[in-house]
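hiii, so i know i said id send this last week but things got crazy w the move. better late than never?? heres the sequnce for the chain we talked about at the cafe, plus the structure i predicted for it. fair warning i was half asleep when i ran it
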Amino acid sequence: MSVRELVVLGTASQVPTRHRNHNGYLLRWDGEGLLFDPGEGTQRQMLRAGVAAHDLHRICVTHFHGDHSLGLAGVIQRINLDRVPHEVTAHYPHSGQRFFDRLRYATAYRETVALTQAPVAADGVIATTPSYTLEARKLSHPVESFGYRLVEADGRRILPQLLAEHGIKGPDVGRIQREGALGDVSLDDVSELRRGQRFAFVMDTRLCDGVQALAEGCDLLVIESTFLDEDEQLAIDHGHLTAGQAGRVAKDAGVRHLVLTHFSQRYSEPDEFERQARAAGFEGELTVAHDLLRVPVPKRR
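okay and structure toks below
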């Protein structure tokens, strides 16, 4: 049975706190694992969350600030120590190649795993698999930063009542699905569009075109909300979003489930982030993330 869920490993911004680790997020998607922004302590958080190195197939880094990348050294070495049997691909801003190289070879270890480096230099599709297409979009932050968007291809949903109307049953149901038509009856005549699922990961950024493009139509949107609305000028100055801005993005983009994360240590009351996102007009499912939380991808529409 396929599993599609987000495992939250850490939710702090800039520095960890007593209750929040540096960033780290694992998306489980049909037997693959995509690890986003492994900050310091990610390897230990993986252990606590029941995530193994063997679960990792891609590592996606938005930018090279420490709270989003210092865990790379440990994660990469763990992948090699555990002799992960499959290829692992790393995506990260091309402009940060020197940082990736330093983290990959921070200390001596034995390389046993094929780690493919796939730096991102511009907006567009960066990977295509049978299960999804992975896209990147540039964000607005003091250092170059990219957000990521995973899109499942649209499919068709067979409707039994339409099959009955056209007298199609038994093995012919499989034939029309495989071949696209059966005599004068096309697959479109007995089915409806099944929209593919969409996931987006938006970290450190001001409001910009990339944020909206990543969020558009998402079933699950993970987005930073470092500041509360009363500190909007701080957010702009440092290249971040507020809770209200994140809520408006999700509302305008038609997001089904919004996950707020990456909270400044200056705030001790997480409920205020939800209140401000709601006040901005978002009415869908909303989660204020905490460490070791698991969030299922919403079921297809």
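btw The mean pLDDT is 95. thought thatd interest u
miss u guys!!
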